[in-house]
Amino acid sequence: NAGVTQTPKFQVLKTGQSMTLQCAQDMNHNSMYWYRQDPGMGLRLIYYSASEGTTDKGEVPNGYNVSRLNKREFSLRLESAAPSQTSVYFCASSDQSPLAGDEQYFGPGTRLTVT
Amino acid sequence: SQKIEQNSEALNIQEGKTATLTCNYTNYSPAYLQWYRQDPGRGPVFLLLIRENEKEKRKERLKVTFDTTLKQSLFHITASQPADSATYLCALNSGGYQKVTFGTGTKLQVIP
Description:
The complex is a heterodimer of chains A (115) and B (112). Helices cover 0% and strands 50% of the residues of chain A. Chain A has 115 residues and is mainly β. Chain B has strands at residues 3-6, 11-14, 19-26, 32-38, 45-51, 56-59, 62-67, 72-77, 86-93, 100-102, 106-111. Chain B starts with a strand and ends with a strand. Chain B is globular. At the A-B interface, strand 4, strand 5 and strand 10 of A face strand 5, strand 9 and strand 10 of B.
């Protein structure tokens, strides 16, 4: 099992460019998440999907869109990148919703720089 | 406002000693609290979960306590080893919400 995979690992964008971060999990998990991690800020939830076909905003959704393509895949799109979106992005999945207390499995992260 | 606080300064301890990391929270009533380990350049890895009705949980050399009166969780690593050096994150469920909120983490350095 590969667990949670993310592509790309690194990306440099110019302000205004768009891109999609891809995430896939092979654990048959229902819930998937996108976080960003910035120094001194901790992990902050951008969007999550409690089950296939549903998505909800997290703490910092502005400037992002998501798609839960199927049970395995959850993508994050930056329509018009801004320097404030320079960060490390992590995708995660869990078997049940956070209400159940299930552990989250994280991918290796995407390091994004917007110039 | 709601806050989760972990020591922002790194914790340095001697190999073989017990490391104790603190997670304090305000204006939350968490149903549970989780601890994760994060190595540089990698995603967090789940270690332990403790629920609001549990005082203590153990797993091998790890022990977590949860005091809902003090609004605090302590994470202990006994007989620490250099391989335990990493950043440790606490996270809690905000009760009724479909999300977990993370602290900023404490960096632990175990010195041989």
